[in-house]
Amino acid sequence: MCGAELITSNSFKTFKHSRIDARVKIPGNADGFSAFWLLGNGTGDQSWPKTGEIDIFEFVNNGKENGIPFFTVHWYGTNCPLKQCQKTISPTPVANYTKDFHVWSFTRNANEINVSIDGKLWSRITRQELAAIGGNYDVIFNEPMHLRLDLSSGGVWANDPLRNAEEGDLIFDYVRVWSSN
Predict the structure, then answer these.
(1) Lower CB density within 10 Å: C or N end of the chain?
(2) Residue 44 is part of which domain span?
């Protein structure tokens, strides 16, 4: 898999309860995998999925799921397959994300996570929903995480080996973060 990540400083800025807004244009290239996500920091023996992960959006242009955004959270749980619990929501797309810029807004507090697109609520995950799945879901709501912006080509989900990889640009006009911690 080929890819690049944007890291904007020598040290990651972490957020707990926060709001993040980003104005983004998604590439429509074949075999592309775009992601706007948060990863828990982890210390000592804590590695993924114990640190938690929140995918604000993932777009996979693999010929089957082109233009469909996925909102997923991942966390550790001995009761889940491979000790990795997850909940994925893929509501109906509300726009053509590859033709225009759209503002993605993410809010996280101790009880829920909301994602809005262009000011309209698109998806929500609550503490109660994750409690029903089990595991250490508290990391999703209460642990500091850092922001990651990622554009990759290939990979298992996006087609591996690459078949028809095309160039593409994941364009962020701006990213703004407000944090209560």
Answers:
(1) C
(2) 2-6+12-179
CATH number of the domain that 69 lies in? 2.60.120.200
How high is the pLDDT of residue 12?
62
Continuous H helices in 22-144: 127-133, 138-142
Alpha-carbon distance of 143 to 15, in angstroms, equals 8
Neighbours of 56 (CB within 10 A): 24
Phi and psi of 130, rounded to 5°? -75, -30
- Give the residue from 150, 145, 177, 181 showing the smallest Cα distance to 52: 145
Tell me, what's the pLDDT at 42?
75
Tokens of 173: 């006009």
What is the domain count for the chain?
Answer: 1
Q: How many CA atoms lie within 13 A of 136 on its CB side?
A: 17
How many Å is the maximal CA-CA distance in the chain?
Answer: 45
Angstrom distance (rounded) from CA 142 to CA 64: 35
- Say if strands 120-126 and 112-117 run parallel, antiparallel, or are unpaired: antiparallel
**pLDDT computed for residue 9 by the predictor:** 44
pTM assigned to the model: 0.86
Structure tokens at 3: 């890819």
* DSSP secondary structure letter of residue 73: E
> How far apart (Å, rounded) are the C-alpha atoms in residues 76 and 55?
15
